[in-house]
Amino acid sequence: MLSQIIEFIVSTVSSWGYIGIFCMMFLESSFFPFPSEVAMIPAGYLASKGEMNLSAAFLCGVGGSLAGAIFNYYLCYFFGRNLVEKYGKFIGITDEKFAKFEDFFNRHGEISTFNCRLIPGIRQYISLPAGLAKMNIFRFSIFTGLGAGIWVAILLALGYFIGENENLIKEKLHLITILLFVFIVLSSAIYLFFVKRRK
Q: With contact defined as beta carbons under 8 Å apart, do 81 and 132 qualify?
């Protein structure tokens, strides 16, 4: 059953091509809880077989992630907290969850829009408090694009080098998640050090 689902996803990404990658990553990065692994790992696998261009897949993945994040950003920028409180429950955003996202953003500032792109389950929603705080859109796009680029590159690499070995992919993703957490802590510390030093 699982192998059939994987085959279906690979064939879907292959048939939709780069537009499919962009659309899937847009959904993943906006309001729909769609796992990015489903789009980017098969794309990496197809690139290893010569059926896709790795650079084009990367650009479409990052472009879709950034577009979805900007969509979320402007939802809160223009409509505010009321929109999330009214409709968030339909996509899994409770008042308690949103309060945590907002608190995390307020405590860690702009760097959180970069770091949270590397954390599964959070990356979709950190754009909401950024929009609510009316963070500078250029800086938001830079931080978001950098974080999304790292994550997309990791997923493409897994698909390219490991392919359809699902167990090995899970094992590597677990290890990568731990390494990313360490990276997030270090990058946040360095960023905050230079920000405080500049001030």
A: yes
CA distance 69 to 34: 13
DSSP of 151-195:
HHHHHHHHHHHTTT-HHHHHHHHHHHHHHHHHHHHHHHHHHHHHH
**Mean of pLDDT over the chain:** 78
The token pair at 151 is 């994550």
- C-alpha to C-alpha distance for 46 and 34, rounded to whole angstroms: 20
- Contact predicate 148/140, CB 8 Å: no
- pLDDT tens-place string over residues 55-72: 999 999 999 999 999 998
Question: Which of 126, 123, 148 lies closest to 135 in space, CA to CA?
Answer: 126
- Between CA 7 and CA 84 the distance in angstroms is 36
Side-chain half-sphere of 47: how many Cα atoms within 13 Å?
A: 23
Encode pLDDT of 66-106 as tens digits.
999 999 899 888 887 777 777 666 666 777 777 777 777 77
**Residue ranges per structural domain of the chain:** 2-198
Helix locations, 30-136, DSSP H: 36-48, 54-87, 95-108, 111-115, 127-132
Only one residue has tokens 């809880």, namely 33
